[in-house]
Design brief:
The protein has 150 residues and is an all-alpha fold. It has one domain. The chain has four helices and no strands. Helix 1 runs parallel beside helix 3. The longest helix is centred in the N-terminal third of the chain and has 74 residues. The radius of gyration is 44 Å and the shape is rod-shaped. The N and C termini lie far apart (162 Å).
Length: 150
């Protein structure tokens, strides 16, 4: 009988130990699940931040290339209106590609600024004076009428 009581007591202790081990296992699994969920959430937040920074970097790169294109066209004496119209036809990302593209564009579309280089021996080209078209007509009529009267 004593042996039976001892074995029963041992079995009860083993059962309680098994229950405690199972409870601890469940707690550990819940904690690891929570940690894994928290890590995936942190990873997704970090990935979102990375994507946001990548988008900003790409926008800065695009703006930089556009600014280079505008500067190259200004360097080749295009007016602001022409730059707004034709900057989309300039291709390339590097400075050399942009310069080549602007030179190719200048073969088709001439810059609007025509003037000489005002150094010591070369003065600026004089722009012609604007003449009133009515005055041109009056002068022509006077020449014809003066010939008829003779």
């Amino acid at each position: 009988m004593k042996d039976d009581k001892q074995t029963e007591a041992i079995e009860q202790v083993e059962e309680t130990d098994d229950e405690q081990v199972e409870q601890q296992d469940e707690q550990v699994e819940e904690e690891t699940d929570d940690q894994a969920e928290q890590q995936t959430q942190e990873q997704s937040e970090l990935q979102a931040k990375i994507d946001e920074v990548d988008a900003k970097i790409e926008q800065y790169r695009i703006n930089s290339v556009e600014a280079r294109k505008v500067q190259a066209m200004k360097k080749h004496n295009y007016s602001d209106e022409q730059i707004q119209k034709y900057v989309r036809f300039v291709e390339g990302d590097t400075a050399d590609e942009i310069d080549r593209s602007v030179l190719q564009l200048s073969k088709d579309i001439t810059p609007s600024i025509y003037y000489g280089d005002p150094n010591l021996l070369n003065g600026a080209k004089a722009k012609p004076k604007t003449v009133d078209k009515k005055q041109i007509g009056r002068n022509a009529v006077q020449r014809v009428l003066s010939r008829i009267r003779l």
